[in-house]
């Protein structure tokens, strides 16, 4: 297994090591110039032979899994040392595209689902296939959510939701209330309410404790593509293919409480970084950091230039964000500074032609992006940023009591 995050990405360069191509020295000789590996801010990109659809971080080790368009699954150890990324194993058991991958909570198993309608469970240590459900759905599987050590949920292209119990090797819930594919799922802290987003433009609410369907939200514009719990579970954020983030109050799932239009072609994936900030991936290849209530585009974390982003994943220690796109690369971004950012309810409009770069590897995402950011550090406040220009609708931000 890989070393811990602190060891893999040290703050200081390691001690000098002998160059691998150096000839052996006689007794008493000293090398003319000892070399040491370069220490990077983030791990190097990982290049694949096919486009990567899904990525997942191991919960305790510096390991990342990736599933690609050909149905192959790869597991890598990653490191901030130059040349430190290593392929541990790969699996070619899926017959079609691998669409989702997730490590078990103890990190010993890797779950994958595929367009071939199958569910695979692999041993992480050896890469060995330990369980295969060949025809888990009648339609190609689109999404996967691990609930606890025994339960997991899958959603398919037809809108069917299944909740599985590993102790029974069978699904104990099979409900179809969406008209299109289930794009993403999330569950509350109590493991009771399962929320889904769908290509039909609705959010679904399912009570898995009582094994029942509760309701669908009102229809929104475009496909709902991803979902996240924010503000300590008081808010639910759903992204859309139209570039809008819809907000729901917890226990107010029928209608939106707010919406925020982001100047992006779409928001295809989204992941929480803090209780207030999410990172989004879009068809334009830009990864944006967005504050929720008050709604602000803070800036650009990174990019896959001109390549649609398929998925984002956050490392367990919160330092790295990984992204995969159609350029067949998995990239790593340092998002640790986002945890210290605070956004004001009140802002001075300041125009800028580019997104603010939030990491050393990021560059501006295009014209006409604006946001205002106030960052508080060591008792000093400095106002900076861009304004995304989207919104008369944002006036509701200051009225929301959850905005801190």
Automatic annotation (TrEMBL):
Instruction: List UniProt keywords, sorted A-Z.
Output: Nucleus, Repeat, rRNA processing, WD repeat
Annotated Gene3D superfamilies: YVTN repeat-like/Quinoprotein amine dehydrogenase
UniProt feature, compositional bias: Basic and acidic residues: 372-384
Pfam families assigned to the protein according to its UniProt record, in alphabetical order: WDR55
Q: Where is the composition biased (Acidic residues)?
A: 385-404
Tell me the Gene Ontology biological-process terms attached to this UniProt entry: rRNA processing
Extract one GO cellular component term from the record: nucleolus
Give the UniProt subcellular location, in the record's own words: Nucleus, Nucleolus
In which ranges do the WD repeats occur? Answer: 134-174, 309-335
Q: Does the keyword section mention Isomerase?
A: no
PROSITE patterns recorded for this chain?
Answer: WD_REPEATS_1 (PS00678), WD_REPEATS_2 (PS50082)
Q: Where is this region: Disordered?
A: 1-42, 372-404
Q: What does this protein do?
A: Nucleolar protein that acts as a modulator of rRNA synthesis. Plays a central role during organogenesis.
Q: Which family does it belong to?
A: Belongs to the WD repeat WDR55 family.
Question: Could you tell me what this protein is called?
Answer: WD repeat-containing protein 55
Protein source organism: Pleurodeles waltl (Iberian ribbed newt)
Q: What is the lineage of its organism?
A: Eukaryota, Metazoa, Chordata, Craniata, Vertebrata
């Amino acid at each position: 297994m890989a070393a811990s995050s602190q060891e893999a990405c040290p703050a200081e360069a390691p001690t000098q090591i002998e160059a691998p191509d150096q000839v052996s020295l006689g007794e008493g000789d000293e090398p003319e110039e000892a070399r040491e590996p370069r220490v990077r801010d983030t791990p190097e990109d990982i290049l694949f032979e096919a486009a990567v659809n899904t990525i997942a971080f191991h919960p305790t080790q510096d390991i990342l899994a990736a599933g690609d368009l050909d149905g192959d699954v790869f597991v890598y150890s990653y490191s901030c040392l130059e040349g430190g990324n290593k392929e541990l194993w790969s699996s070619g058991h899926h017959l079609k595209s691998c669409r989702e991958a997730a490590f078990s909570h103890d990190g010993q198993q890797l779950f994958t689902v595929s367009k071939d309608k199958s569910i695979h469970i692999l041993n992480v240590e050896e890469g060995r296939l330990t369980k295969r459900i060949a025809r888990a759905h009648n339609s190609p599987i689109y999404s996967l959510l691990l609930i606890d050590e025994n339960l997991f949920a899958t959603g398919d292209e037809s809108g069917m939701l299944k909740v599985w119990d590993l102790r029974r090797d069978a699904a104990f819930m099979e409900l179809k209330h969406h008209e299109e594919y289930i794009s993403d799922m999330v569950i509350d802290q109590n493991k009771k309410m399962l929320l889904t987003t769908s290509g039909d433009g609705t959010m679904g609410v399912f009570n898995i404790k009582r094994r029942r369907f509760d309701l669908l939200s009102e229809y929104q514009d475009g496909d709902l593509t991803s979902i996240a719990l924010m503000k300590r579970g008081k808010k639910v954020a759903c992204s859309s293919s139209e570039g809008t983030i819809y907000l729901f109050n917890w226990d107010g799932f029928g209608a939106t409480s707010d919406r925020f239009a982001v100047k992006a072609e779409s928001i295809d994936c989204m992941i929480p970084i803090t209780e207030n900030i999410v990172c989004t991936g879009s068809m334009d290849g830009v990864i944006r950091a967005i504050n929720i209530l008050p709604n602000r585009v803070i800036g650009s974390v990174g990019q896959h230039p001109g390549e649609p982003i398929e998925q984002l994943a956050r490392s367990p220690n919160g330092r790295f964000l990984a992204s995969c796109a159609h350029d067949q690369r998995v990239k790593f971004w340092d998002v640790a500074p986002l945890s210290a950012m605070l956004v004001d309810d009140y802002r001075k409009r300041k125009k800028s032609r580019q997104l603010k770069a939030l990491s050393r590897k990021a560059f501006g995402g295009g014209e006409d992006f604006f946001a205002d950011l106030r960052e508080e550090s060591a008792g000093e406040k400095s106002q900076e940023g861009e304004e995304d220009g989207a919104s008369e609708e944002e006036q509701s931000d200051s009225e929301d009591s959850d905005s801190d």
